[in-house]
Amino acid sequence: MEFFVLLLELAGIAIWGSIWGVATNAVIRNKGYDENWFWWGFFFAFIAVLVALSKPQVSYDEEVADHEAEKAREQAILSSNGWKCSKCGRVNPSYTGTCSCGTSKMQSEALLRRREEEKRKFVESRDEMENLKKIKEYKELLDSGIITQEEFDKKKTQLLKL
64 forms bridges with which residues in the sheet? Predict the structure, then answer.
């Protein structure tokens, strides 16, 4: 019986702490903070809610200013021979050989070259397909007698870059 009472008391404490944790976290989120205050609310109950309520509201202007400051910092690092990880997108100073995601500077550069090559091939194949469609349209114009064979050959040569 004593064990059952102890279990009920622990369950009550857990429910009580969870309610305060959710409430505290909700107050923080509504204030505009991207933080998890659940455990503060769980352990410190109404005190944590009071502290959360006393925090100032985060304004949109502050978020924009923080974002602009981060961009300026990244630009300063890049202008001093820093590098951007092509895997995770983090900006690293020049003296750092490995990003915090585990990608080395050489791996990042190789990945970037590979992506640029794939993009170039894609653009070339897309342009080639568009040119083939245009040649088909010119062929239809030729077959219907709207353009001459000479005009068709000229456009075909121009589109195929022969």
Answer: none
Residues 6+ apart with CB under 8 A from 89: none
Exposure of 117 in the CB half-sphere (CA atoms within 13 A): 6
End-to-end CA distance of the chain: 94
- In this predicted structure, what is the pLDDT of residue 5? 87
CA-CA-CA-CA torsion sign (76, 82, 85, 88): negative
Per-residue pLDDT reduced to its tens digit, 90-126: 899 988 889 889 889 999 889 889 989 999 999 888 8
DSSP string, 6-60: HHHHHHHHHHHHHHHHHHHHHHHHHTT-----HHHHHHHHHHHHHHHHHSPPPPH
Residue 11 dihedral angles phi and psi, to the nearest 5°: -65, -40
Chain centroid to CA 98: how far? 20
Q: Which residue has the tokens 């949109």?
A: 60
Per-residue model confidence as pLDDT tens digits over 117-128: 999 999 888 888
Give the model's confidence band at 162: pLDDT under 50 very low, under 70 low, under 90 confident, else very high. low
Q: In angstroms, rounded to a whole number, what is the distance separating the alpha carbons of residues 25 and 29? A: 6
Global pTM?
0.42
Chain centre distance of CA 15: 37
| C-alpha to C-alpha distance for 67 and 58, rounded to whole angstroms | 14
